[in-house]
Amino acid sequence: MGHAHSHKVKRYSGLMDWLTTVDHKKIGILYLIAGGFFFLVGGLEALLIRIQLWKPLNDFVGADTYNELLTMHGTTMIFLAAMPMLFALMNAVIPLQIGARDVAFPFVNSLGFWTFLFGGVLLNISWLVGSAPEAGWTAYAPLAGTTYSDSHGMDYYVLGLQIAGIGTLIGGINFLVTIINMRAPGMTFMRMPMFTWAAFITSALILFAFPALTVGLAALMFDRIFDANFFDPTGGGNAVLWEHIFWIFGHPEVYILILPAFGIISEVISTFSRKRLFGYSSMVFATILIGFLGFMVWAHHMFTVGLGPVANALFSIATMLIAVPTGIKIFNWLFTMWGGSIKFTAANLYAVGFIPTFVMGGVTGVMLAAAPADFQYHDSYFVVAHFHYVIVGGLILGIFSGLHYWWPKMFGRILNETLGKLTFWVFYIGFHLTFFIQHFLGLLGMPRRIWTYLDGLGFNEMNLISTVGALLMGVGTIMFLINVVVTFTKPKGTVDDPWEDGRTLEWTISSPPPEYNFAQTPLVRGYDAYWKEKMDGHSGMTPAEPIGPIHMPSPSILPFFMGLGLFIAGFGFMYARDWGHIGSLNIGYVTAGAGLLIVLFCMFLRSVYDDHGFHIEEEEILRDKGAKA
User: Fold this and answer.
1) Opening angle at CA 86, ends 85 and 92, nearest 5
2) Where does the pLDDT of residue 10 fall: very low under 50, low under 70, confident under 90, or very high at 90 and above?
3) DSSP-derived secondary structure letter, 447
4) Which of 204-213, 460-469, 534-543 is predicted with the least confidence, judged by mean pLDDT?
5) How confident is the model over 409-432, as a mean pLDDT?
6) Peptide bond preceding 512: is omega within 30 degrees of 0, i.e. cis?
7) Does the N-terminal or the C-terminal CB of the chain have fewer CB atoms within 10 Å?
């Protein structure tokens, strides 16, 4: 412990508390707010796309605006909505599930959030300056080069994603270290909850996949800002190179998104079936195998590029192999429910609704994996339907399930169950209306990424149905927000284990948990640690240590300023050509330098002033325990 005396640390309140916090639970809430906000922005963009397509030859938005909407919808939903909402649940739950007091690097955790947020804000400011990215969310060269995208739109894409990507990468590293090093005594790897396992594999995927995106974006930035020619064939570059780099990141990315959702579904179905997860060890190995195979299939996005029959065949086989561990998971969820006493709470409705929906997405995935067939499906609405079944029907239903399930643990209040169930049905029906019909649109020949279509092609009714479905999903999302607002008008007052069948460690402590999570680190005696103690007739966990002072990290404003510095630097680099000079100094480069200086100065401060943290003394802990009892 070092010093016996307690370091008095400056405690903040109000806004400053949120700007400086390094507490994983508060950072989880910040991720949830930011991710939820971007989810609304991305959803609005999607609705505008669907309104444009509801009838033939519609002129609701122009072709250029449509391309911007399409690009920003995809980019926002994947990088700024889905990822942070998963990070929100991971931050809120993982340290609790492994019996830890916080993540391994609380300061870095905060830094990850602020870089993500400033990157996302930078990307979306492009709307306000009148030139949003317009080359598609995959930013294919040469469309993303200066020849076809000569406004600053794609610069916002490149720099915004670079900055946001730093946040994701250091977040992933943080969770890897946390799960490896900070598990409570007795919490062996094969006793970890399924959600923790999923987060662990996801973090490993982030570690290996995101550097590829970083390299690709750096090369594209050099092409755009410094006239390099990585992807410019006229200068000896290669446009297909971008596709390889992007999908070597982009395919693992879809597993980065879906694996945490798998983990959530495992927890929820097991809890509300009152049964141990069927085939736990096979679930763990299936997750590892999915993560491993996810890196070997990137070229299935490129069957029509002309890599040749050998490459197409190999990637086709590898893609179909992923169906095996995924199928194992599906059957294990079904067998977990088989013979269980199932409670259809709102959380469980989302989890059960997830299974058939995800299976449908998987089946169309296997269809797309057959290279000769893919020549027909490629760049049609069939592909749009497929990946929305996986990402919305999988990931978003998973996130909603997790939010309903862990909301009482995060906020001390249970979301309204009746409203939650109603929301599920509105959203679920809206989802299937929107995307089921798009499979047939695609098979009829409607191409992706078109802003309008002619009358008489047989697309009219289906597009209208699809748009109605999208509006229903919008209504569902608003209903969820109403549920949140209504819930917050109620007083806090949730028991530790609101579902009564909690199986894992997070249900052993108060809702919401105290700053230090566990007054005494618990001793884990088996898988489903809390359930095991209940079955042995104990009211709670056996502590693994006596009560003593708890050492906690201090809050810090530095991560906020580091994010801000990168944000300023991004602007400077982007506008270096437009802003002119003061004397011989380029204003853009001076601005960029100033931004980077802020970041370096914060790093310097952090290394000079070592954070000793502070102690929470025994009296305070005992007071909390007394208040709880």
Assistant:
1) 90
2) low
3) B
4) 534-543
5) 97
6) yes
7) C
Query: Could you tell me if 371 and 305 are in contact, meaning their C-beta atoms sit under 8 angstroms apart?
Result: no
Q: Mean pLDDT over residues 413-419, rounded?
A: 97
3-state secondary structure of 581: strand
Q: Letter for the amino acid at 46?
A: A
First to last CA, the chain: 28
Residue 135 in tokens: 């080359």
Peptide linkage before 252 cis (omega within 30 of 0) = no
Residue type, 461: E
- The gap from C-alpha 23 to its chain's centroid, in whole angstroms, comes to 19
Determine contact, residues 426/472, Cβ cutoff 8 Å.
yes
Residue 344: CB atoms within 10 A of its CB come to 13
Range 483-505 burial, b when 16+ CB lie within 10 A, else e = bbeebeeeeeebebbbbebbbbb
CA angle 116, 119, 125 (to 5 degrees): 140
- Number of alpha carbons in the 13 Å side-chain half-sphere of residue 609: 9
Q: In the block, which residue shows the tokens 């016996």?
A: 4
Q: Which of 59-63, 208-212, 525-529, 577-581 has the lowest mean pLDDT?
A: 577-581
DSSP-assigned letters across all residues of 357-410: HHHHHHHHHHHHHSHHHHHHHTTBHHHHHHHHHHIIIIIIHHHHHHHHHHHHHH
Does residue 125 contact residue 227 with C-beta atoms inside 8 Å?
Answer: no
Per the document, the length of the chain is: 629
CA distances from 348 to 79, 420, 494, 550, 609 (A): 26, 11, 19, 36, 48
Cβ distance 119 to 166 under 8 Å? yes
Say how many C-beta atoms besides its own lie within 10 A of residue 15's C-beta: 8
Which domains does the chain show, CATH number per domain?
Answer: 14-556+611-628 (1.20.210.10)
Number of CB atoms found within 10 A of residue 341's CB: 9
In 3D space, the residue among 33, 57, 10 whose CA is nearest the CA of residue 460 turns out to be 57
Give which of 198, 206, 191 is closest to 329, Cα–Cα. 198
The residue with tokens 């190995």 is 285
Q: Output the CA angle 52-56-58, nearest 5 degrees.
A: 40
* CA-based torsion, 366, 368, 370, 373: positive or negative: positive
- Give, in degrees to the nearest 5, the angle at Cα 4 between 3 and 9: 70
> 140, 240 in Cβ contact below 8 A?
no
Q: Which residue has the tokens 């594209």?
A: 220
CB-side neighbour CA atoms (13 Å) of 152: 22
pLDDT digits (tens, 9 = 90+) for 85-138: 999 999 999 999 999 999 999 999 999 999 999 999 999 999 999 899 999 999
User: Based on the number of CB atoms within 10 Å of its own CB, is 50 exposed (0-12), middle (13-18) or buried (19 or more)?
Assistant: buried
Can you tell me the distance from the alpha carbon of 517 to that of 508, in angstroms, rounded to the nearest whole number? 10
Phi-psi region of 149 (alpha: psi -120 to 50; beta: other; left: phi over 0): beta
Distance (Å) of CA 398 to CA 84, 96, 202, 405, 623: 14, 20, 15, 10, 37
DSSP strand E in 497-576: where? 550-552
Q: Report the distance separating Cα 550 and Cα 508, nearest Å.
A: 19
Q: DSSP string of 523-539?
A: PP-SSSHHHHHHHTT-S
Tens of pLDDT along 514-565?
A: 999 999 999 999 999 999 999 999 988 999 999 999 999 999 999 999 999 9
